[in-house]
Amino acid sequence: MSMRDARFPSVIAGLVLLTGAGVAAPAQNSDVEFASHRAVYELKLASARGNRPVEAVRGRILYDFSGSQCEGYALQFRQVSEIDAGEGVRMMTDMRATTWEDAAAKSFRFNSQNFVDQKLKNAVDGHAEREAARAVVDLKKPATKEFGIDPAIMFPTDHMRRIIASAREGKTLLQGPVFDGSDSGEKVYETMTVIGQAIEPDTQKPDDAAGKDEHLSKLRRWPVSISYFDRSKEGGDQLPVYGIKFELYENGISRALALDYNDFVVAGTMTALETRPSKPCN
């Protein structure tokens, strides 16, 4: 990511399907139960590369997730980052997003604002509906527009459900298209996900806020790595636009983030975690 592109891709983008290296299938009923929770991640520069490497990054992510299979899943997300490129060049980015997705992964609403140095750079507002044979996005911002996308796309919460189900089955390599309403609300990313070996309960206890949660200590977790590719540039040995690494618990909580923007990598350490009971289904 260059200093000309102030957009930090969100961590809300999820993962993919249930089969090895196939194409994403429609959502199916699952015994995956997501935990309603509020997590805070402190950000700092982990590494930099390139001719003019970034000298420092600091910031914070607030991730507030709630819902159930009956009422759907809501997310409030905010990522604030200060980037120091050296020679007196600094930039503050502030990304705010809210989403809602039904449990069947057929309906998805998204709204986001991206600020650079406290000035609004872009805003996105819209919703997507998916059926077996077609998927349609209805945008209100940045401009009124309706268009079709690949019906095989995955929405964020369903992505997470599928990767947990895949991990439980011992699958390690996943791929498929992702739509999370980011950028201008029109982009679909092709993704490649690698799931590592399970970390069993009561082993390798984390030294962050996740390690202090008694319920998490009884759950398995998996190291996950996702690479995002520009779907409009097919063919050849394409490099990913960006990548995300993290450890994923069975209830959807993530820790130990690593956000790779090609020019630099940002580490996200969970400093606070609050879990809440989800509303039971009637």
Structural classification: mainly beta
Rg, please? 18 Å
H/E series: EEEEEEEEHEEEEEE
Uncertain parts: 1-29
Output the strand order for the largest sheet. 8-7-6-5-4-3-2-1-14-13-12-11-10-9
Percent range for β-strand residues: over 45%
The biggest beta sheet reads: 14 strands, antiparallel
Count of folded domains:
1
**How would you state the average pLDDT, rounded?**
86
Number of contiguous helices: 1
- Using the alpha-carbon principal axes, give the shape: globular
Distance between the termini: 46 Å
What is the total tally of β strands? 14
Task: Indicate the percent of residues in helices.
Answer: under 10%
Brief overview, please?
The chain is mainly β and 282 residues long. It has 1 helix and 14 strands, in the order E-E-E-E-E-E-E-E-H-E-E-E-E-E-E.
If you had to describe this structure to a student in words, what would you say it looks like?
With 282 residues, the chain is mainly beta. It has one domain (36-275). The protein is built from 1 helix and 14 strands. It has a 14-stranded antiparallel β-sheet with strand order 8-7-6-5-4-3-2-1-14-13-12-11-10-9, covered by helices on one side. The termini are far apart.
